[in-house]
């Protein structure tokens, strides 16, 4: 079992193009992203700098960089290039921090584990796209502690190189989740082709560096400033209620208390049998403990369960891990009793985080 904790909630990359174009990496993460504690605009409280040479901006951290120093002060890792929404969330969570861009979600986890960064701010779910399952899985792979969460309202912009107009655009490039969130608007603008890349700011950077004339980026207004692009349209997301919830991760847990509101996250698998999930959830309902989130993921170490149904061939069923968030502190005896009763029903208890 990994005992993890976190701080109380803060109040609230195949289309035609020029010869110089390099095929961007296609993201393997599902088209999902994250929602919950602080709401802010895509740029939030970030200062808007003057347009800079993209080459001078920090490049995303790779695994090979994990032993390199990254500067003074609180260092916060995030996935993406400078100007990504995750950077805005990191600065919202830690306003005076030094942000550390990372190429992949796992690199951000590794950066904190290897003391290259002090914290990581990574998306968990989005109000339109749902959960980011990759980060749920990485929580069990890495020994980090959730220490808080931050909400970010996402406002997408359509960006292009100077002189390019909307009618010149044949394709839109961005993170697949951002493209999905702007699907209807892009179609109405006559932009039919989509190109998925690793992150929104990375799309802006690629378009600026390769001086593409027929492709626009879906990214933040800050990315436009950083990479010298023009904003052709603002707030192009199909739904104005577009909020991403990020988790804040650290090497050390926080101490549970009862003088402030806390949330607790747990991950478990259940013994086989009818009604087991109902019984597991009942331990909280009977004590009037509110559940704010429940997510199931296939149990990779127990992928199939065989059930004998008296037929010629046994049935095979997926076995699952259950991720549950509850509004309770583990310092509360009521919550301790609920968890004690839950453990009786469990096949395996994998993770607990208080934040």
The CATH class of the largest domain, by name, is Alpha Beta
Name given to the CATH homologous superfamily of the largest domain: Periplasmic binding protein-like II
CATH architecture of the largest domain: 3-Layer(aba) Sandwich
User: How far apart, in Å, are the first and last alpha carbons?
Assistant: 17 Å
Q: Whole-number radius of gyration?
A: 22 Å
Tertiary shape: elongated
> What's the CATH topology label of the largest domain?
D-Maltodextrin-Binding Protein, domain 2
Query: What percent of the residues sit in helical stretches (DSSP H or I)?
Result: 10-25%
Contiguous helical run count? 9
Taking all residues together, what is the mean pLDDT? 80
| Count of spatially separate domains | 2
Helix and strand composition category:
alpha/beta
Major beta sheet summary: 6 strands, mixed
- Strand composition percent: 25-35%
- Write down how many β-strands occur, each being a DSSP E stretch of 2 or more residues: 18
Ranges where pLDDT stays below 50 over 5 or more residues in a row are 1-52, 64-72
Helix and strand sequence: EEHEHEEHEEEHHEHEHEEEHEEEEHE
């Amino acid at each position: 079992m990994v005992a993890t904790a976190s701080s109380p909630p803060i109040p609230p990359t195949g289309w035609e193009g020029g010869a110089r174009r390099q095929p961007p990496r296609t993201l393997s993460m599902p088209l999902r992203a994250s929602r919950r504690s602080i709401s802010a605009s895509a740029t939030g409280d970030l200062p808007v700098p003057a347009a800079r040479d993209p080459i001078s901006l920090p490049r995303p951290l790779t695994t090979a960089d994990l032993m390199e120093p990254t500067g003074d002060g609180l260092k916060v890792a995030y996935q993406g290039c400078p100007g990504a929404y995750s950077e805005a969330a990191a600065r919202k969570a830690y306003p005076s921090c030094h942000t550390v861009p990372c190429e992949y979600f796992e690199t951000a986890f590794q950066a904190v584990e290897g003391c290259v960064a002090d914290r990581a701010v990574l998306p968990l779910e989005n109000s339109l796209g749902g959960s980011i399952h990759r980060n749920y899985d990485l929580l069990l792979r890495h020994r980090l502690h959730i220490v808080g969460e931050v909400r970010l309202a996402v406002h997408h912009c359509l960006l292009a190189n100077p002189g390019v107009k909307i009618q010149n655009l044949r394709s839109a490039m961005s993170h697949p989740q951002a493209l999905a969130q702007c699907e209807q608007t892009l179609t109405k603008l006559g932009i039919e082709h989509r190109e998925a890349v690793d992150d929104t700011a990375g799309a802006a950077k690629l378009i600026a560096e390769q001086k593409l004339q027929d492709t626009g980026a879906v990214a933040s207004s800050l990315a436009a400033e950083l990479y010298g692009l023009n904003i052709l349209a603002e707030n192009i997301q199909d739904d104005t209620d577009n909020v991403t919830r990020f988790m804040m991760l650290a090497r050390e847990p926080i101490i549970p208390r009862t003088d402030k509101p806390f949330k607790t996250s747990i991950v478990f698998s259940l013994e086989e049998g009818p009604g087991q999930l109902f019984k597991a959830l009942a331990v909280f309902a009977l004590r009037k403990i509110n559940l704010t989130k429940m997510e199931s993921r296939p149990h990779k170490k127990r992928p199939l369960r065989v059930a004998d149904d008296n037929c010629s061939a046994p049935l095979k069923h997926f076995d699952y891990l259950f991720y549950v968030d509850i509004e309770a502190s583990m310092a509360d005896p009521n919550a301790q009793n609920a968890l004690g009763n839950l453990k009786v029903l469990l096949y395996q208890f994998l993770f607990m985080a208080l934040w």
